[in-house]
Design brief:
single chain, alpha+beta, four-stranded antiparallel sheet
């Protein structure tokens, strides 16, 4: 397991809280379009380059940039699973919701869906979900400096699978960086909740054979660390309209606590002359078949709650 402090952080009025955010080592893949694509994906997490850490002022708020859905899904995904389109959120729901809160949650879910599509090289779905994401970005007035040419190529499905994967990740990073610079943290938090929930929903939906998929199921268990970060983030906005979202997340806490996660006792820290920081450690996951499927059900219920208006 690989950890890094590649995070922009908002600080409270009294102190700065720095979280080591989990960046996931990529090891298992399926649905690749050749060795070149697999090699590109394996590069994620191998080296962590980051600019000077930026500290943003806020009132009693801690915001963390979580790993992208591409990183999480590619890390978790077993070679034994196949693409299942039924796990995708209906792209037509983009125009269904009336509140900014739900539109933002759904945007996060669609970003995870696009990552799922691209990780399996299913370019036939790309245009549909890019249109849904583009609609919500404009509706939410998230003014991105994202190349119209790249977006149009996604809409036309004219990129090969390698390029779709890279641009999907670039789009997510562009949105997150934009919100870190200009948002008070609430929109970023909602997108992160939506992305995380959909990523867990897809991951548990794909990995439903406990014996065959056990290594990937253990990796799903590791996401408890990211879940705890989300609880911290949503707690910051309980008085700003996100109390229900925080309560929904808290509702699955017992299921996550049933996953025994023993954090690394020692960390191997090294820095290259180029400024690349490596922080390595091992964690142990212990989850029973019964507890895993209870957890999977709780993720489905969480998704339904987040989608209910």
């Amino acid at each position: 397991m690989l950890f890094t402090s590649k995070t922009r952080i908002m600080k409270s009025s009294l102190k700065i809280v720095l979280f080591l955010t989990l960046i996931l080592t990529i090891s298992l893949f399926s649905g690749c379009s050749g060795c070149q694509q697999e090699k590109k994906k394996e590069q994620i997490g191998e080296q962590i380059n980051f600019d000077e850490l930026q500290i943003l002022d806020s009132v009693e708020t801690v915001i963390m940039a979580l790993p992208s859905p591409e990183e999480i899904l590619t890390y978790i995904k077993s070679k034994q699973v196949e693409f299942n389109g039924d796990l995708l959120l209906d792209s037509k729901l983009a125009m269904h919701y009336s509140t900014k809160k739900h539109k933002t949650l759904v945007l996060g879910m669609y970003l995870a869906d696009l990552a799922y599509i691209s990780s399996f090289s299913r370019t036939d779905y790309v245009s549909e979900y890019t249109k849904a994401i583009d609609y919500l970005i404009k509706d939410l007035e998230i003014n991105l400096n994202f190349s119209e040419d790249l977006k149009n190529k996604l809409l036309n499905s004219s990129f090969d699978p390698d390029e779709v994967y890279n641009i999907s990740q670039q789009l997510y990073s562009t949105i997150i960086n934009y919100l870190q610079d200009l948002d008070n943290g609430k929109t970023l938090t909602l997108i992160s909740v939506g992305t995380f929930c959909e990523t867990m929903y897809i991951s548990t939906g794909l990995h439903n054979d406990f014996k065959i998929h056990e290594p990937s199921i253990n990796r799903i268990g590791e996401q408890k660390l990211l879940y705890e970060d989300l609880l911290t983030m949503t707690a910051s906005f309980k008085k700003s309209g996100l109390n229900d979202i925080h309560d929904y997340l808290k509702g699955i806490e017992k299921k996550f606590n049933a996953i025994s996660l023993e954090s690394a006792q020692t960390l191997d820290v090294s820095t290259t002359k180029n400024g690349v920081l490596y922080i390595k450690g091992d964690s142990k996951i212990d989850i029973s078949k019964e507890k895993y499927f209870e957890f999977s059900q709780s993720i489905k219920e969480l998704r339904n709650l987040l989608l209910s208006e």
